[in-house]
Specification:
Distance between the termini: 30 Å
Strand order of the largest sheet: 4-3-5-6-7
Radius of gyration: 22 Å
Order of helices and strands: HEEHEHEHEHEEHHEEHEHEHEHHHE
Number of helices: 13
CATH class of the largest domain: Alpha Beta
Number of domains: 2
Strand content: 15-25%
Structural class: alpha/beta
Shape: globular
Largest sheet: 5 strands, mixed
Helix content: 40-55%
Length: about 325
């Protein structure tokens, strides 16, 4: 029987191995290299520990995809806490219900979510943290307030010279069956149901991705994260696989309109594209169809010899619409 390695050990290994490579970028924004991610994770660990978070506590995250969201998620797992990703499209009532049902101790929120939630509806939370800069939206304990206000000072005392890769030592799950995260469904029948995801499920998705993409994707390749990381499809195949493999993940950080996605494809030139049918269809309709759906093209496509050449040109337009550098498009 194959022994399942520690998933958090894979995170640690990737950060150390890819220390000076680009890791996470907000499209049209800042880039974090793997060592920047490690530094931010360490600061969040200090804040968790100083505020009284213990192994197994639940930490919820609700916001659009971003580099800061990804760091907060990685920090949660590698601390030994249980992550509770929440789709940012959920209503305030759904978010309140999930936070309460999961018994989350802390909640990370994005800019939009911060404006719609009601802290009084989540009485057991000890704090609400703003994802973009990890500032405190709400603190209900002196320990959390002190930890955030003195975070840089505490980090400086712990690492008086500078933070190096040999300082990266993360919590290793004690068993493949240990709980990594609770993923809540879209709640089509009443409130969302929490699905308990063990570490072995996280690892097996990574192992599957390696088996089908490991010989195709290269370290340092660019990918674009379009699907929400709070959903397991986006989490496993547009974030965790790429981060563990040493790729460079770009986040749109806004509503993924066809225009924004097309601009991102043209600039980032992703090595692989993973999406849902609607996104692919929108781009084809906007970027390809206008060039081929006219009377002249219809006539040419009906000419036996010419049609082959025309189809090759159409293919070029499709490839160009998706950045021109991808191995394949995976639609699921």
């Amino acid at each position: 029987m194959m022994e399942i390695p520690s998933f958090n050990a894979l995170i640690e290994q990737s950060i150390i191995t890819n220390w000076d490579k680009d890791a996470l970028t907000d499209f049209k924004g800042a880039t974090l290299q793997y060592h920047d991610v490690a530094r931010k994770i360490e600061k969040l660990h200090i804040m968790f520990e100083s505020s009284g978070v213990v192994k197994g506590d639940k930490i919820a995250l609700c916001g659009r995809n971003s580099a800061s969201w990804a760091v907060a998620f990685l920090a949660t797992l590698t601390y030994g806490a249980v992550a509770v990703p929440i789709l940012h499209e959920f209503t305030a009532d759904q978010i309140h219900n999930i936070v309460n049902h999961s018994e989350a101790k802390l909640l990370f929120v994005g800019d939009y979510v911060a404006t719609v939630i009601d802290q009084t509806k989540m009485p057991d939370l000890e704090g609400i943290i703003y994802i973009p800069d990890y500032s405190l939206v709400v603190s209900r304990t002196d320990k959390l307030t002190y930890a955030r206000e003195h975070l840089n000072e505490m980090f400086g005392k712990k690492y008086p010279k500078y933070f190096r890769k040999e300082h990266v030592h993360y919590y290793k799950e004690q068993s493949p069956d240990e709980l990594a995260l609770i993923n809540y469904t879209s709640g089509t029948t009443g409130f969302s149901k929490g699905v308990m995801i063990p570490y072995r499920a996280m690892w097996s998705n990574y192992d599957f991705a390696i088996s089908v993409l490991g010989n195709i994707i290269k370290k340092g390749d660019n990918v674009i994260s379009i699907l929400p990381m709070a959903h397991m499809y986006g989490m496993a195949f547009e974030f965790m696989f790429e981060f563990l493999f040493g790729c460079h993940v770009f986040y749109l950080t806004r509503i993924p309109s066809p225009a924004i996605i097309a601009a991102a494809f043209a600039e980032v030139k992703p090595a692989i594209i993973i999406a849902v049918p609607l996104i692919i269809e929108k781009i084809i309709r906007k970027k390809v169809f206008p060039k081929i759906q006219n009377n002249r093209m219809r006539i040419l496509l009906n000419m036996p010899i010419v049609s082959k050449k025309v189809n090759e040109k159409i293919k070029e337009q499709v490839v160009k619409a998706f950045g021109g550098n991808f191995y394949e498009i995976i639609v699921g």
